[in-house]
Amino acid sequence: MKSRGFTLVEMLITLVILGVGLGIAVPSMNAWTNDRRAQAVAQSMIDGLRFARQEALSRNTNINFTLVTETDGTVSWEVGCAQVVNNQNVGTSTALIGCPATIRERKLFENGDRFSVSPSPTSNTIQFQPLGNIATTSITSLAGSGTATALNMIITYRGTATPIAVSVTVGGVIKICKTSISTAGDPLLCLAPVAT
Fold it and tell me: What is the side-by-side strand order in the sheet with 63-69?
């Protein structure tokens, strides 16, 4: 009479096959998870940039989108009215009446999250004008020469090999792109050259 059950050899073979399968799947899953986390940060930045552009259009004034790094390493974005010269006290800057310096803010990530955001060209503030385009003062500070057509905010998670970026044109077009793509016409091509 035959006994029902598994032999030790059958169980060991099953465990080896399971171990090999997990060994192949886990690194792929980690890369996918890291990519999703970077995409979530990029989407939050796009939401903030689009909100800033919409506020500039609806309020008919200059609106700043600013990346803020706290002392603990937490990075967030803020949208607020640009400072203007007060006509009564020339030389001082105040926010427009009825237009707060901070309209909305969101946390992108905390210090322990191992993200980094690198604007390229370097600037933590983008100013949108009432027509939805980027202010010329922002363009000059972003490009250094005023000739940039777009900028990228490169987002990496734990030093991933192919970081993603949020690209913004001078005209106010905002999109997610991949820094590793260089083929013209590819929808994931960054709008500005990626600094290497």
Answer: 104-109, 75-81, 63-69, 125-128
Rounded Cα distance, 176 and 190, in Å: 8
Please choose, from the candidates 194, 187, 175, the residue with its C-alpha nearest in 3D space to the C-alpha of residue 46.
175
Question: Of 112, 104, 90, 9, nearest to 47 (Cα)?
Answer: 104
Rounded CA-CA distance 120/193 in Å is 9
Question: H helices within the chain, ranges in order?
Answer: 8-59, 136-143
* The token pair that represents 35 in the structure block: 């990519």
CA atoms within 13 A on the CB side of 157: 19
Relative to beta strand 63-69, strand 125-128 is antiparallel
Euclidean distance between CA atoms 97 and 138, whole angstroms: 23
3-state secondary structure of 4: coil
Render each residue's pLDDT in the chain as its tens digit; 196 residues. Answer: 566 788 888 889 999 998 888 888 777 777 777 778 888 888 998 999 999 999 999 999 899 998 888 888 788 899 999 875 544 444 445 555 678 888 999 988 766 667 777 766 567 888 899 999 887 655 444 444 445 567 777 777 765 656 788 888 888 888 888 888 888 888 888 876 655 4
Integer Cα distance of 84 and 111 in angstroms: 33
